[in-house]
Amino acid sequence: MSQSVLKRNRETLRKLVVVALLMFGFGYALVPLYEKICEVTGINQVVKPDTVVNTQVDKSRTIVMEFDANARGDIAWELIPRERKRTVHPGELVHVVFDLKNTTDVSVQAQAIPSFGPQRAGLHVKKLECFCFTQQEIRAGESRELPVVLVVEPTIPQDVHTVTLSYTMFEVGGTQEPKTAMRPTGGNG
Amino acid sequence: MEAVHEHDHSHDHPTGLMRWVTTTNHKDIGTMYLWFSFAMFMVGGVMALIIRTELFQPGLQVVQPEFFNQMTTLHGLIMVFGAIMPAFVGFANWQIPMMIGAPDMAFPRMNNWSFWLLPPAGTLLVLSMFVPGGSAGVGWTMYAPLTVQQGMGMDLVIFAVHILGMSSIMGSINIVTTILNLRAPGMTMMKMPLFVWTWLITAYLLIAAMPVLAGAVTMTLTDRHFGTHFFNAAGGGDPVLFQHIFWFFGHPEVYIIAIPAFGVISQVIPAFSRKPLFGYASMVYATASIAILSFLVWAHHMYTVGMPVEAQLYYMFATMLIAVPTGVKVFNWVATMWKGSMTFETPMLFAIGFLFLFTLGGFTGLVLALTPVDVQLHDTYYVVAHFHYVMVAGALFSAFAGVYFWLPKWIGKMYDETLGKWHFWLSIIFFNLTFFVQHFLGLAGMPRRIPDYSLQFADFNMISSIGAFGFGLSQLLFLYILIKAIRSGEKAPEKPWDGADTLEWTHLPTPAPYHSFETPPTVK
Amino acid sequence: MRLKAFSRLLFLATAMLMAGLASAEYQLNLKPAKTALGEAVYDLHTLVMIIITVIFIGVFGFMFYAIFKHRKSVGHQAAHFHENTTVEIVWTVIPVFILIGLAWPATKALLEMRDTSAPDMTIKVTGYQWKWGYEYLDDDVKFYSSLATPRDQIQGDAEKGEHYLLEVDKPLVVPVGKKVRILTTANDVLHAWYVPELAVKQDAIPGFIRDTWFQAEETGTFRGQCAELCGKEHGFMPIVVNVVSEDDYKIWVAEQKSAGGAAAYDPGKTYSVAELTSAGEAVYKAHCVACHQPNGSGMPPTFPALTGGMISTGPIANHLDIVLNGSKKNPMMAAFGAQLSDMEIAAVVTYERNALGNSLGDSLQPGEVAAARK
């Protein structure tokens, strides 16, 4: 092969290696991209307070808000909504309370993740105050009231009549007896 | 790359094992790729037979559920990354330099490395079965968070995928560079044989898709061991994200496997129809558009994860669109046969088998594209049947067609035509016996990846298992045919196929010399 | 030629096989749907099959005509054409129109499928390794549903029953003609809730809820399975839905509330070892048998044996603790505190200590479980 061909080959090699590296980076870029898309479409709620644009109460419509809660992980604890459902008007401030009870003898660091059904409703339910914004430390045997303040925006699509707000409480490490991992860390956070 | 320069002109090469370890010759490396892939095909095939043995009857007879899950995982990974992909890279190594009039691949030393990465990776996959806890029982799709629960077998599988990915990327860079820079004078892009075109497109797909898979499994690895939370809701991640990243790689991967198969078929059908390929330009454009579309439809593998309905609609429409260029290809192949002067030697039989069954797989793909129907059929045996029609009847049959077609050129000897035909007929009959009935199982609601099933599914599973053993045994015949051809095959004529018109047939003797086209031919 | 005779024989065999299939009433298509949406899906599938069949016959009609007529052995000379713009445009454009024709009903069915608004009732379905948890959000009924097929049938030691692998201890019960909204989530890994005849399949994802719905048009028992690989017992977590009349449904709900299932116990009473052991057997079969095996032999090292096991024959407080709170060392041992009632835990612990080859003779009272929860 002549020198000029070898030079061209090296040039092509360089470009293709750059493409491969960029695509590796792209795989990682999908992570924030996905989060952004989920945030914009309301699929996954970021755990930070929303700002409410329109607080005009729309008395002509009612929405049934359902509340649901799950507590995960290999520990005995409970998260229960104090009421199962409430009928609200769009624009109205809604206060609800969840009860968290730690029946174990260790204190637990916990984080709640909110989720909506149907997903597209999530975009229109604004949380002004929520225990999911911060981690909760709940001590052994402790019971705690966790408040949520939210507004269903009047922008919610006309064909949505029922919205479920579900929280899943996870243990995020920091128990007094960290697991001597047979399962590698990261599994339960 | 200085070493390359040196090596190009050294005509004495070591003998014995060292010849194969140190070789930088594209023909040697192509041969190694093909044998490696055949060996992995046998390993993956044995795993498939273990699966089918367990599924022969309801109840757990042979293996325990965990081991069954490991078999489905390893069967998938080994067949996709160990058997099918290396087989087509083997074809690329042998054929691309000869078809474009180049003396060798652009980076012969890197070519050697990209092959020799494969055996360690294959060994890792097999070895993962023997570590405590066994291999990964997560399916070849490796969905989180099940991957987090696995033992160290999962880590070995992840490393193996990394190495296999590295090998594919290196091989692809080599192929792209060779095609772009080393074509003989006069071999313009639109004069390249379609096999070369399909590999150029495939190699670009690989360079774009494989790093994304590497990213996905790396994230799995750090989630497992280093406390990251990419796929763990507790830490702000999302298990569904893994599926998005995986299928962003995974759907192009389907075409990485299928497109070189299209290339082989596009050489074989014209050769045995004694008529040029119909619609060469539209074939090139159709292949390119399939490749581009393949990056835009990945979430059709995820219709049941609960995406917004708008997203489901988009993915449904985009997926249906793929049927158009795929249809164009099938029509072109049939039009190539139309008014030809056909003969039906083994390569042509496998090509027709490919055409017939791949189209069936394409049709079930259209059924699955329709979201409401897919929600019913997702993760059932219908999907298993669908992708085996695409991968086995598609890619594997095309690889068989390619081997029978080019074997005389490679070794200078003919295979046994009668046995070749037997191989074809046994393969196609047992293939359909195995997989056609799986459509019915899926329609009736049998989920995939289960080691045991309810009584309603018993009869078809038994038929499928019988078919699988027949299919597996038929492949031993293929091995016998190969050995027989190599050891005592009749001497091949200079041009055994009347209609073959690419450079390796028109400008090189049979068998092809160890060093070919050291002075490039001129293409008119 | 031998090959020809062979292929003729095979053709004959295939034809006979097909005839056999047709006569024996095999399930060759989607199961008849029991919901309006399911019927729409069924019709869509039929439509696409018809289109496919027509195209298939057309394309391969041409191909086989060519194979028989344009072959060298009958002396056909090859033509030399290799393109025809008109034909190529035609066979690109026509499929586009066919696809548009298909997309229309598909879109309609999809929009309906995803419309979960205005349900009559909502049930939360939680996937566990390896059982389902059901929670009726409107009626405050909650229970677990796990495989009821005895292990000896699976191992081939007993004859398999009619609903082998598709039977559960407590089926989901819903009223006929009501729009039932299903919320799915999961405790550990991905699962998928799939009932073919009700045309529902929805992944269950840990940490998030997803929703789907069905409205059964007739009463009956419909069976499905987990459709997403979720580990070892993925094939053994079936779903059974009993669709009953509205009156029967009301009766069923009332029963659930008054009985509270096995959860009820008399706080004043001290239960005997025999009482607890016999009550514990059902709990063991529903929740423990998948890993620890019917005879308590386990699958070491991941799933330790209970027969003569360190914990099951050690101090009873430790035994209770691991059932209640899970294992700190082995993540595969889940915490059952949230899933099981005091009575159930007392029963199963007593069972494990006095059956499965163990005979310690001690027992655990539900009151002690309640105390341990504090």
Describe this structure in words.
The complex is a heterotrimer of chains A (189), B (524) and C (374). Helices cover 21% and strands 35% of the residues of chain A. Chain A has 189 residues and is α+β, with helices and mostly antiparallel strands. Chain A folds into 2 domains: 1-41; 63-171, Ctag/Cox11 (Pfam 04442). In chain A, the strands form 2 sheets. Chain A has a 5-stranded mixed β-sheet, with no helix packed on it. In chain A, strands 2-4-8-6 form a 4-stranded antiparallel β-sheet, with no helix packed on it. The longest helix of chain A is centred in the first third of the chain and has 39 residues, at 3-41. Residues 174-189 of chain A have low confidence and may be disordered. Chain B is mostly helical. Chain B is built from 17 helices and no strands. Chain B has helices at 2-8, 17-22, 26-54, 65-100, 108-116, 118-127, 152-181, 194-225, 239-273, 280-293, 309-337, 346-369, 371-377, 381-411, 417-443, 458-488, 503-506. In chain B, α5 packs antiparallel against α7. Chain B is globular and about 65 Å long. Residues 1-10 of chain B have low confidence and may be disordered. Chain C is α+β, with helices and mostly antiparallel strands. Chain C folds into 3 domains: 27-113, Helix Hairpins; 121-259, Immunoglobulin-like (Sandwich); 263-373, Cytochrome Bc1 Complex, Chain D, domain 2 (Orthogonal Bundle), CATH 1.10.760.10. Chain C is 41% helix and 16% strand. A 5-stranded mixed β-sheet of chain C has the order 3-2-1-5-8. In chain C, strands 4-10-9-6-7 form a 5-stranded mixed β-sheet. The N and C termini of chain C lie far apart (84 Å). The model of chain C has no long low-confidence stretch (mean pLDDT 85). Chains in contact: A-B, A-C, B-C. Chains B and C meet through α4, α9, α10, α11 and α12 of B and α1, α2, α3, β7 and β8 of C.
